[in-house]
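Reminder: ligand-aware prediction takes two inputs, not one.
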Amino acid sequence: MSSPAGPSPPHPSDSANIAVLHTEEQIQKRVRELGAQIRQDYEDEEITLLCILKGSFMFAADLARAIEGKVAVEFLGVRSYGDGTRSSGAVQITHDLTTPIQDRHVLIVEDIVDTGLTLEYLKRVLTARGPASLKICALLQRPGAPTDPDYVGFRMGDGFVVGYGLDWAQRFRNLPFIGVVQPPIE
Ligand code: IMP
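Here is what comes back for the chain with inosinic acid:
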């Protein structure tokens, strides 16, 4: 994991102070907007949502319900390797697709685009599998990320975020809102 916000925190402390960045209501409203926009763009095509585990499980579940019509859902588990402070761009697939995506309209659902290295890797690997189309929907995008998702929930600044699927050492994924860990992690 990497972050312009600085190194990943070593371990969450019980006294961690998390400031709300986007409330549950704001998230649900934005997800509904994304769902409507996505359906409009794909017309009546079947969309295969590709949920990138673990961080996008909650976003993908809500997005799937916000898109009317034909939607399939697939899961891909990935783990990024790095020195703990910077992503190396080496990504390991921990849980591969169980259904071929050839000739399908695939929409990658990602939690946050940070350096963009994970998505660059996924685009390469998935393009080789011959989908009819491949697009990206990211819940959050940091400024300066080299990968430009086709759909973005919220653009954000620095700061380590948790909640709504995003973790800090596997914790806080269950928060219904998106929050920033305070004080800023150094
Ligand atoms: P990238 O390859 O640098 O774009 O890494 C993206 C991955 O890093 C995301 O899918 C997240 O799992 C993780 N990540 C980056 N920033 C944060 C954060 O602020 N909170 C939680 N996870 C993060």
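The pocket of inosinic acid is lined by residues 1-3, 5, 55, 80, 87, 110-118, 160-161, 166 (CB under 6 Å). The helical segments are 24-42, 57-66, 117-127. We will return to this case in the review session.
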